[in-house]
């Protein structure tokens, strides 16, 4: 599941031993993450594609 921390909160990822990024990340469906959801510390979200990947590159010969 993909989760993001709620605004103003800093959430530790017990598996990767770092902080959950503001943009969120894919995490395993464990009791820990379900507790964070239940307590309102994180929210379910969808991964957003980076802007440079979303737009196709222009070819040099196009005019």
Short description:
The chain has helices spanning 31-39, 51-54; strands at 2-5, 12-13, 18-19, 25-26, 42-44. The chain is of the alpha+beta class and 63 residues long.
What key attributes describe this structure?
two-stranded antiparallel sheet, 21% strand, elongated, alpha+beta, 63 residues, 5 strands
Q: What is the ordering of alpha helices and beta strands? A: EEEEHEH
Helical content band: 10-25%
Give the low-confidence spans. none
* Number of beta strands: 5
Mean of all residue-level pLDDT scores = 87
Radius of gyration: 16 Å
Work out the strand percent: 15-25%
Class from secondary-structure proportions: alpha+beta
Order of strands across the main sheet: 4-1-5
Major sheet summary line: 3 strands, antiparallel
How far is the first residue's CA from the last residue's CA? Answer: 43 Å
Net shape:
elongated
User: How many alpha or pi helices?
Assistant: 2
Describe the structure.
The protein is α+β, with helices and mostly antiparallel strands. It is built from two helices and five strands, in the order E-E-E-E-H-E-H. It has a three-stranded antiparallel β-sheet with strand order 4-1-5, covered by helices on one side. Strand 2 and strand 3 (18-19) form a beta hairpin.
């Amino acid at each position: 599941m993909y989760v993001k921390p709620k605004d103003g909160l800093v959430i530790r990822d017990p598996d990767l031993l770092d902080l959950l990024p503001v943009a969120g990340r894919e995490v395993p469906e464990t009791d820990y993450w379900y507790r964070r959801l239940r307590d309102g510390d994180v929210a379910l979200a969808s991964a957003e594609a980076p802007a440079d990947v979303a737009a196709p590159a222009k070819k040099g010969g196009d005019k």
